[in-house]
# Entry
Amino acid sequence: MTQDLAPLLVENAIKGSALLALAGLVNLALRRRSAAQRHITWAVAIAGLLLMEPLSLWFPARTVRLPVAFSPAIAALSSPPAESVPTPGTIRGR
# Structure
């Protein structure tokens, strides 16, 4: 169960950090405005954190396509090393 939960927690931590960073930048831009406006920024950010998971279940998932330049590097990282791939002469039982 914890193995299934770990990616979800990491994903939500990244999304939440991005949302709070955006709220911080907006708050920085509103530095000379009233405290009420800055408070609204943080209140909306915290409401977004609370609604993030239920809304992600409601809306369809988005996938990010990588540029073609990154595809060979990722394929090399995700494929097994050449030594661990059995050749036809090394398969046992045949």
